[in-house]
């Protein structure tokens, strides 16, 4: 049996935080968990109609997830030519798995002073930070 959420329930989960001007990680994790429960809870929600004979993989590690998604990388681009079913049955935390980097960026918009410390940041791509409060962005 599959239980779907109403639009108002989803919206209440995704209600924007006035400081981050976006979805908080806690709310995003909750939504993903609920989506995962819906998918696992019943086949009617997602049932492949084609490709019944594709190889099926259930990754257990971050490296397995990466390898199943991409055969190889060329100049940083994923190259994959083999169709497959990849079943993700747990949360994989990629935080820090490819190292960390720090660059000059800025806060997303002009924000109230109390939000600057924890506000949403962005990288200075194509001079998008012109006129905005500068900061260092770690990712």
Automatic annotation (TrEMBL):
InterPro entries for the chain: Pectin_lyas_fold (IPR012334)
Q: Keywords of this protein's UniProt record, alphabetized?
A: Membrane, Transmembrane, Transmembrane helix
Membrane spanning segments where? 28-46
What is the protein's name according to its record? Uncharacterized protein
Q: What is the lineage of its organism?
A: Eukaryota, Metazoa, Ecdysozoa, Arthropoda, Hexapoda
């Amino acid at each position: 049996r599959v239980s779907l959420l109403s639009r108002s329930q989803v919206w209440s989960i995704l209600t924007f935080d006035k400081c981050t001007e976006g979805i908080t990680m806690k709310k995003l994790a909750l939504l993903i968990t609920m989506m995962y429960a819906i998918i696992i809870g019943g086949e009617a929600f997602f049932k492949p109609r084609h490709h019944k004979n594709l190889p099926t993989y259930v990754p257990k590690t971050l490296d397995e997830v990466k390898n199943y998604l991409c055969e190889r990388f060329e100049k940083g681009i994923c190259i994959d030519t083999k169709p497959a079913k990849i079943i993700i049955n747990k949360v994989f935390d990629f935080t820090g798995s490819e190292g960390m980097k720090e660059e000059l960026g800025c806060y997303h918009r002009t924000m109230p002073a109390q939000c600057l410390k924890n506000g949403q940041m962005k990288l200075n791509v194509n001079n998008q930070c012109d006129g905005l409060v500068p900061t260092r962005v770690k990712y």
